[in-house]
Amino acid sequence: MSEMSPPVSDGRNNENPHELSFYHLVKEDYAVHGRHIFNQGFFALFCHRFGNWRMSFKNKIIRAPLTLIYLFLRQWCQVFCGIQLDYIVKVGRRVKIEHFGGIIINARQIGDDVVIRQNTTVGIKTVKDPNGRPIIGNRVDIGAGAVIVGNIMIGDDVIIGANSVVSFDVPSGSIVKLPRAEIFPRKDLDNMKGANRAD
Q: What is the layout of strands, in order, in the sheet containing 121-123?
């Protein structure tokens, strides 16, 4: 039997980057997303930052209404933005969700200056290891439709091409991509169809 992954955050603490206050962190995210208040990526990160910030209040009575607000915002974000990013995911600074829709981010940790595009899935590889979640390094550029799963490490300055499926460690400074599409002259396609009909 394969070794089980270490546990993920239990969500009891504020895991926002500690060098900035909640206000300044949201202000930075706002700037990263083009200073557009209705940007779906910004809203998803605001919801995530808020979910962590509320955990600064250790008194459960004070925290209860903030938790209700967070749960509402989280659901709203999933339904109307198509982005799932739970607060227990440790997210660094200047992370940009470039486009929206079909995004599920259940990483263990995401570094600074990461770019995430639409239809990206980051999470577990198998239900037998629910804690097996990726760690994404700094300055990682993730293309549309990428799938990053399992207890793996994506190093710094990595580019993950569109529609790539990554279930293995990727060293820093690497590029992960699928083979390029090929172009065939139309006559070759017609010849192939003719050969199939002859069969």
A: 83-85, 103-105, 121-123, 147-149, 165-166
Average pLDDT, the chain: 92
Tell me if 181 is assigned to some domain.
Answer: no
Q: What size, in residues, is the chain?
A: 199
CB 141 within 8 A of CB 160: yes
Whether the Cβ atoms of residue 74 and residue 54 lie closer than 8 Å to each other: no
Supply the range of the domain harboring residue 147: 22-176
Query: Looking at residue 1, what is its pLDDT?
Result: 41
- Does residue 107 lie in a domain region? yes
**129 within some domain:** yes
What confidence score (pLDDT) does residue 54 get? 97
Contact assessment for residue 135 and residue 109, using Cβ atoms and an 8 Å cutoff? yes
